[in-house]
Amino acid sequence: MKVLGISCFYHDSAACLLDGGRVVAAVQEERFTRKKHDWNFPNHAVRYCLEQAGIDVANLDAVAFYEKPFVKFERILKTYIATWPFGLLSFLKAMPLWMKQKIWMSAVIEKELKYKGPLYYGEHHLSHAASTFYASGFEEAAVLTVDGVGEWTTTSIARGKGLDLEILEEIYFPHSLGLLYSAFTYYLGFKVNSGEYKVMGLAPYGKPRFSDLILEKLMDLKLDGSFRLNQKYFNYTYGTRMAGRPFEKLFGRPRRKPEQALEEIHFDLAASIQKVCDEVMLRIARHAYELTGMSRLCLAGGVALNCVSNGKILREGPFKEIFVQPAAGDAGGAYGAASFISHALFREPRSPRWEQAFTGPTYTNDEIRGVLGREDAVFEEFSNGELLGTVAKKIAEGQVIGWFQGGAEFGPRALGHRSILADPRDPQMKDKVNLKIKFRETFRPFAPAVLEEECSEYFELDQQSPFMLLVAPVREDRRAIPSVTHVDGSARVQTINRKQDPLFYGLISEFKKLTGVPVIINTSFNVRGEPIVCSPEDAWRCFMRTQMDCLVIGPYVLEKAKQTRTEEPPAEWLKHIPPD
Description:
Elements: E1 2-7, E2 14-19, E3 22-28, H1 30-33, H2 43-53, E4 62-65, H3 69-82, H4 88-102, H5 105-113, E5 119-121, H6 124-136, E6 140-146, E7 153-161, E8 164-172, H7 177-187, H8 196-202, H9 211-218, E9 219-221, E10 227-229, H10 245-251, H11 264-292, E11 296-300, H12 307-316, E12 321-324, H13 332-345, H14 365-374, E13 380-381, H15 384-396, E14 401-404, E15 418-422, H16 429-437, E16 447-451, H17 455-458, E17 470-473, E18 490-496, H18 502-515, E19 519-524, H19 536-545, E20 550-553, E21 556-559, H20 571-575
Parallel strand pairs: 1-4, 4-5, 6-11, 11-12, 14-20, 16-18
Antiparallel strand pairs: 1-2, 2-3, 6-7, 7-8, 9-10, 13-21, 14-15, 15-19, 16-19, 17-18, 20-21
Helix pairs in contact: 6-13, 7-11, 9-11, 11-12, 15-18
């Protein structure tokens, strides 16, 4: 059975195609349109998936959409009625788009795809749960999904066994851990649905002195992890803002404007909401263990991208092993919807455990060479053996490398195919890459990519972390990697094994031969405000407009100093480097 999964019309639109239960392709629309978090119908992503399978729409057995639009519309309409007249402006802004497009998904899919076959709608949280359980390789597991909100559900516990998946308990809107975290993202002056990473990165610089106040005034948290939010302090049920004056009064100052410098209170607020998030997730995870009796846990939903909380569950929770879907947010819903229909309904066999997420576009050497020729690029070509030794030496010498290989990653993390690489031993490297290449705040940490068999030598982590979604302490005697060690002594770890990615594994191995360190900096190949690069053209533009030293694209190595022309970064990039 060929099943196409689609997620769209909120943020991070994506498409995924399964054939016989196995992933043929999965990719986000933003990679093609270059519009970060693109929410539009994923025409480009669908086209890519079909091309990879060598089929057209007529060959599909089913299309699955990741949520139920009418149920979501019911929640939105009832919420506006309950909060009337406060939500009038938001109502007038939202309703035209809903009435014209969002609610009529059957008609939209028929129009956009010219498709008239079977169409299935999965509940939002069931799609999340399916996306992680069916990818985990676990025969049975507890499944925890936590996000802002789907139709009505904001948190759910499910049980997966074999091909079957059943939701057991739920928490409903407006009570949402994801929206609570986003309210602090908004209050701290960052963009909701993308700035949550910044709050997580900022938290270790502060003290959680407001955590008790949050639990006293904003959240009524029970021992089993269930909770209610005091809606007096929030605006998200009826307005375009997450929090208003009562929230500001509670913490003693107005919302930080994006251009304002960060102060001690901002660090402390970030630390406080992160501590609360950790505690809520740990309590829910413990309850999921008691409810299901399962020894393994699968996580999905936007909050599952909070790798600090994930690490806390692994270290302090009752589970032997946890698995987090690499595209845990709404993009992963495309895979989740398709996989639920394929496995639970059509009874197709499950795929093996996801070891990697390189399900996006790949380019041949001829295609890459064509792009480089059109740009008059100066480059050298190397065999694989020569390439790895050459690039490892450049990293060891302090060069910053743009690394473009194979298929693009699915999800928000660059995992070694669309990456910027550098030497973790250099204490100045974090600031250099943040300011001169990524054009972003210097407090943002970088992830270490480490050879899997040596992970426990450097980090307090005893399981795989291939998708960079677990934070673990750096061992005290291994702190000679300062540019991937956060201020609190932790790191967001990515483990690499030979089966998962032979080329990237080989590069880190060569770096170890030169330096004795089996770790390199791995961050996404993009600049602030742009999606991760997808095509050779994207990689060339990013390389030329930043202070990267070298671009390695397929077997070709380009040194910045040897190029016949130079490009300045757009003024917009420089203008918006936020103050620390």
